[in-house]
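Q: Given only this backbone (333 positions), what sequence would you predict?
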């Protein structure tokens, strides 16, 4: 999946005025901790017109007018931290929920907001700055990129979960406390949970109160941001005011390949074996990546298939084998 057209400055036409520099931070933070440790940074987007509520209602209208209804998620905002995403009560009146976010008890996520040229220009500048800060050619390594905006009523809860993307979160309006856990702590997130997550069980991560002391709790306010490594478990509680935040999310090719190792390990575990976790054996990792790569799409056409096309094809083969076995059994009767 190519992101070249989206990110080429020549393809983005907008009269939007952006800060000369969006991210303000210590260079060493990015180069040493990128996708290995969570860390805070500062930014200059607080108070920008792109994140005012009327503009966000207009953005929601743009997304809906394009028939992209699956790109907006809206839920009741006050839920338990352990609540699973697919069990949250939904909200249908999205425009009204955003317009009256202070009173609507709502949590709204607008996905892939770069469909609007002004947000595309913003995303382009952020990626340019991230390439400088990380010292990496991120555009060449990316397999998927998206900008999401979160709009939430006072005292909203974002339930505990894990994500398959790298995340740079920019707090624009309001405040929140973000509890972020170490993605490498297997007492918080074990190998089997990660394997199931990459097979497709997106609600596999379970919040355990006894682990809360292991979290780093960051107080985010306008002008502050937070980097989440891939798979870092987290949950958030907003303060007493409306919260607006921007997430810049992306996949990178090396970490997509690591996903295949977890997926193969899930099948090995179901066969009663104890699979070797990623990073323990270079040879085994390469074999697993190669094997599942034979079933994976060479040019995946969606975010979902980038990580899961191979395992989806494997499931299909598995289903056909079961049907064949059942047919053979019936013939023997």
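A: Predicted residues:
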């Amino acid at each position: 999946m190519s992101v070249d057209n989206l990110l080429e400055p020549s393809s983005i036409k907008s009269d939007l005025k952006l800060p000369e520099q969006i991210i303000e931070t210590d260079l060493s933070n990015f180069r040493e901790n990128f996708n290995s440790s969570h860390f805070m940074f500062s930014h200059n987007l607080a108070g920008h017109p792109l994140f005012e509520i009327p503009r966000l209602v207009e953005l929601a209208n743009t997304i809906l007018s394009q028939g992209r209804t699956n790109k907006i998620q809206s839920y009741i905002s006050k839920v338990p931290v352990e609540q699973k995403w697919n069990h949250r009560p939904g909200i249908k009146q999205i425009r009204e929920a955003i317009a009256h976010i202070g009173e609507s008890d709502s949590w709204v996520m607008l996905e892939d907001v770069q469909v609007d040229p002004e947000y595309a220009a913003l995303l382009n500048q952020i990626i340019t700055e991230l390439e400088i800060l990380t010292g990496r050619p991120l555009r060449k390594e990316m397999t998927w990129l998206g900008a999401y905006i979160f709009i939430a009523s006072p005292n909203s809860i974002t339930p505990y979960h894990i994500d398959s993307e790298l995340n740079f979160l920019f707090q624009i309006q309001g405040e929140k406390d973000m509890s972020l856990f170490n993605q490498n702590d297997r007492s918080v997130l074990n190998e089997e949970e990660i394997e199931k997550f990459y097979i497709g069980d997106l609600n596999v991560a379970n919040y355990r109160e006894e682990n809360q002391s292991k979290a780093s709790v960051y107080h985010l306010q306008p002008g502050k941001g937070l980097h989440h490594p891939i798979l870092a478990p987290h949950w958030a509680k907003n303060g007493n005011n409306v919260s607006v935040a921007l997430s810049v999310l992306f996949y990178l090719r090396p970490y997509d390949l690591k996903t295949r190792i977890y997926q193969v390990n899930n099948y090995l575990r179901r066969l009663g074996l104890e699979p070797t976790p990623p990073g323990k054996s270079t040879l085994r990792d390469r074999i697993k990546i190669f094997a599942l790569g034979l079933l994976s799409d060479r040019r995946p056409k969606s975010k979902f298939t980038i990580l899961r096309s191979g395992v989806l094809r494997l499931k299909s083969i598995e289903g056909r084998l079961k049907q064949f076995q059942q047919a053979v059994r019936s013939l023997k009767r």
